[in-house]
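Discussion board: Methods & Data

I've been asked by a reviewer to show the raw model output for two of the constructs in my manuscript, not just the figures. I'm not sure how much to include, so I'm pasting the format here to get opinions. Each protein appears as its amino acid sequence followed by a line of discrete structure tokens. Is this the kind of thing reviewers expect to see in a supplement, or should I convert it first? Here is construct A:
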Amino acid sequence: MDGTRDLQVVTVGEALIDFVATCPGRLQDVFAFNRLPGGAAANVAVGLARLGIRVGMIGKVGQDEFGFFLRRELEKEKVDTRGLLFSKDARTTLAFVSLTEDGERGFLFYRHPGADEQLCPGDIDESLIADSYVLHLSSLSLTSEPARSAALRAMRLARRHDLLVTFDPNLRPSLWRSERDMKTVTREIMRVCDVVKLSASEVQSLAEAENVEEGSLRLVQSGVSLVIVTLAGKGCHYRTRTRVGNVEGYEVVVKDTTGAGDGFLAGFLAYIVRHGLVYALHELGTKELEKALQYANAVGAMVVTGLGAISSLPCDAAVSKFLTQQEQGNR
């Protein structure tokens, strides 16, 4: 990278409020919630900022107290918010999150419509994209119009300015018109992305495969350059056109899995940006690629030990300390 661009990564997608249950159980049985900033695109942006990456976010929130709160929190984290706009016509999206005893989640969204859905193609600031190296897209931007067209315009601009394009499907079937629409749109987007990060269930569903290995192979054959599949505590699986493998995860006490995938992705992007690998992913050897994924696994593991996504995202010094402790523990 030439080092002349103001930003290093731009995320496009949703910033919303997570109301996370304070105790395990069904939402109908929960009496109290913690209000936390969230949304996949916002989570990744904050994760990158804490890891020392210059990052901006493009999205839309309501012109309401929650929207003002989200913008303030992002600015506090040193995320460039020039692309975060306010909608007068829709309120900030809310997500109520239930937790099981082992930290797994259930979601109930209040988004009819949400402000994030109102992002228009004309809202995309080309200068922010032209001034970066990586465009990261979250799938909630694709669930409805005009946000879907806005996301597609951002991708076209990214190609025009030679950015690496990364995508996390982060599927939430309840937010789509139909499962068929969800799969069709997501597959079309994946084919024109450089890096796609999915969960095990997502890769099997979208690739219509019986297992992760078969699913990742089908996605690479469809045009994706690098497929990364997160495997919870077991680490991750990866596949390129010439390489395939798994990178072990870390054993931690799980409190809340919210934002684990976003933290993982922030860790991966931070590593490749910091080490000048954005334009060399096609040429990476197994050792260098697995180092990046090891770092990503560490960030994801650290996120699940806290409550909420953004509040649990670590800084680079904390990740380095975590990795050192893990190495010492394995000796």
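Construct B, same format:
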Amino acid sequence: MPEVDVTAARILDVGCGINKYPGAIGIDRNPRSRADVLCDLDRFPYPLRDSSFQALRAVHVIEHVSDVIRAMEEFHRLVSPGGRVLIVTPHYTDFSSFCDPTHRWHLNSFSFRYFGPDHGGFGYYSSARFREVSVHVRLLALWRYVGFEFLVNHFPRFRRFWEYYLCYVIRGKVMEFEFEAIK
């Protein structure tokens, strides 16, 4: 498939499905989707030019790819320096993480640390670097109403404590990550 010229569109919606983000270029493997470009999201590189996008969205996609690290490297390649990457995925304690047989990965709020300065000594897995702009964890409604979600999202040490000790009792629902590409 030839490379697509994306000079007008500056947002890429990876795995757009039928709900493509308005104004974005959508890529998906399913011909019944609203994708502008059909490609296998597990085959790299995608048929798009380096640094073509100011923003990239991967909403409920990363848990389906065969190689999370390689997909993140591809996202890094496609966004311009300082470009933003939005990733939305279920928390591994949510029922939806395991009830979908197409989910290959079950992630938590620290799963992308390898791409930043707090890589725990494992930064050699990839040369792609991102700055974490935000992480937002949604919890089940009861825990949101009693303020627990606020604590998890506003105090990184509390989030770590929750991930280590409490997340199987006070389960996560969905996580939203925003990263800035460092190039």
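Answer (T.O., handling editor elsewhere):
This is acceptable in a supplement if you add a one-line summary per construct. For B, something like: The helical segments are 68-78, 95-99, 141-145, 148-154, 156-166.
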